[in-house]
Amino acid sequence: MDPVWTTTVLLVPCVVVLTAGFFYLYGVIMGLLTKTSVRNKVVVITDALSELGKECAGVFHKGGARLILCGKSWEKLEELADDLSNASDPTLTFPSKLVLLDFGDMDSMPEVISEILECYGCLDIIILNSSMKVRAPVQSVSLEMDKLLMDNNYFGPATLAKGLLPSMISRRTGHLLLVNSIQGKLAVPFRTAYAASKHAVQAFFDCLRAEVEEYGISVSTINHTFISRSASENTETTSKSIWSLLYTKKPRGVSPDEAAAEIVKTLSNKKKEVVMAPSLPKVALYARSFFPNVFFAVMAAGVKNAAVAETM
CA dihedral defined by 219, 135, 305, 276, rounded to 10 degrees? Predict the structure, then answer.
């Protein structure tokens, strides 16, 4: 028998076994990281009713965290808490605390902050996951909608962080993790208010990171392209414009389990910034920094291309 053929026949099964072993070890390691990084930790999750929020709640609950789940619907929060309890060993986990939180109602924030602090008297991890999206030409977006976006995407997370921060400073420990869009670093046409709010909250936490380092508090930001929510979005028809390639929902989006795994890893290694995006958006980030005129020209061409496509 040909030695090359023999080597190939023997090599393929080895590669398959090694690959399977790698993924198995990865799963085991991620499980251990989850348990060691959040065991007995008090973890606040905003928008716990979103797909990513539910995924994080499930991962952290199994890891032994003391969860404080925040959301707009009390009934759905109770349903989520029941699902978490039914899916785990009650002797190894803690029942979730529930807090109603709506960043669109800024007047309720002082009460929400007090309620969160009363749950356990202290905080270890805050995952700021909330987001509100709008896609439309700038002239068609009302000032009221602009303000609502800023409340949900900037003023809400910033106010919550400022209200909970003294508790962390007094204990000289804690970790704030902002789940932000890549549009906090890269603006795309027809998302003016959304991109502005994401830029604002990105800047807030970048500044905060330097200010609280002396207290032993970590601040991390994760910028993703898109969190996929359902299979129906996988088949959605995307725009024909050039810039739409930077922000299509699938296949360039991030699944909830991938994002949750990245959050766990970021909490463990305390990495300051993570960009979850394929090559093209990352190239666009560098182009925006080093070749701004080229980037702006591509964006403008994309808008014209989209207008032509809509008339066809």
Answer: 20
| Angle subtended by helix axes 192-212 and 143-150, to nearest 10 | 30
- In the set 120, 194, 247, 286, the catalytic residue is 194
Report whether the peptide linkage leading into residue 251 is cis, meaning its omega lies within 30 degrees of zero. yes
The predicted-structure confidence for 144-185, as pLDDT tens digits, reads as follows: 999 999 999 999 999 999 999 999 999 999 999 999 999 999
- Catalytic residue list contains 24: no
pTM above 0.85, yes or no: no
